[in-house]
């Protein structure tokens, strides 16, 4: 019993430590990503301020950027531009704080998405979905965020006084942010790929 409990505890810890934000670009154009932590400048692939945003090529569900959580108890904004490396035509923001010993606070925001003080998103005509996975998913407000195409996203921040922040326990696995997701997949529950599922079963057995 002790050995089995230890293995399960280690498996949960491994899932937590390795968890990432996975941005999956289904769009037929590239998307560009910066992230800002603790109010710092926007940083991309080379870590310099306002230079070299991450680029996720146009894809069909296979163009993925994996970002490790910044675990310093301070807010992070992941800013996403669609087909605009200069970030001049609006952004979508995935915001989070990884609070050690507490949990992951997160949201999707359209505030300032169309410019300073203007709500909007360059993905208004596209399906966007954020999905927590593994043990923490489904607990309390640790639920997926769905933004259907051509609709105001009621799950996202559109005004500063909205209450849209969600909380996930620290044993939550990867977070998937799907951009321009095809409608036939939009309502589906995200499942582990078969190989990853087999590895997980082998590890925890």
Structure in words:
The protein has 205 residues and is α+β, with helices and mostly antiparallel strands. The protein has a single domain (20-190), classed as Thaumatin. It contains three helices and eleven strands, in the order H-E-E-E-E-E-E-E-E-E-E-E-H-H. A six-stranded antiparallel beta sheet has the order 3-2-5-6-7-10, with no helix packed on it. A five-stranded mixed beta sheet has the order 4-1-11-8-9, with no helix packed on it. A hairpin with a 3-residue loop joins strand 6 (92-99) and strand 7 (103-109). The protein is globular, with a radius of gyration of 17 Å. The model is unreliable at 1-17 and 191-205 (pLDDT under 50).
Short summary:
The chain has helices at residues 2-18, 183-186, 194-204, and strands at 20-25, 31-37, 54-56, 63-68, 76-82, 92-99, 103-109, 128-132, 145-147, 166-168, 175-179. It has 205 residues and is α+β, with helices and mostly antiparallel strands. Strand 6 and strand 7 (103-109) form a beta hairpin.
List the helices and strands and how they pair.
Blueprint lengths: L1 H17 L1 E6 L5 E7 L16 E3 L6 E6 L7 E7 L9 E8 L3 E7 L18 E5 L12 E3 L18 E3 L6 E5 L3 H4 L7 H11 L1
Parallel strand pairs: 1-11
Antiparallel strand pairs: 1-4, 2-3, 2-5, 5-6, 6-7, 7-10, 8-9, 8-11
């Amino acid at each position: 019993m002790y050995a089995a409990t230890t293995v399960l505890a280690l498996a949960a810890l491994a899932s937590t430590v390795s968890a990432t934000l996975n941005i999956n670009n289904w769009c037929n154009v590239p998307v560009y990503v910066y992230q800002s932590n603790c109010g710092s400048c926007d940083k991309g692939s080379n870590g310099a301020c306002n230079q070299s945003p991450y680029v996720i090529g146009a894809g069909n569900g296979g163009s993925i950027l994996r970002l490790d959580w910044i675990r310093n108890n301070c807010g992070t904004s992941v800013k996403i531009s669609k087909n605009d490396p200069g970030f001049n035509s609006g952004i979508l923001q995935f915001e989070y704080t990884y609070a050690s010993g507490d949990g992951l606070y997160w949201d999707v925001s359209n505030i300032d998405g169309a410019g300073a003080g203007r709500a909007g998103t360059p993905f208004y005509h596209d399906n966007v979905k954020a999905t927590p996975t593994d043990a923490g998913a489904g607990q309390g407000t640790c639920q997926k965020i769905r933004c259907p195409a051509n609709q105001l996203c009621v799950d996202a921040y559109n005004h500063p006084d909205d209450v849209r922040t969600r909380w996930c326990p620290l044993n939550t696995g990867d977070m998937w942010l799907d951009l321009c997701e095809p409608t036939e997949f939009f309502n589906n529950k995200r499942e582990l790929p078969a190989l990853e599922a087999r590895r997980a079963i082998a590890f925890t057995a």
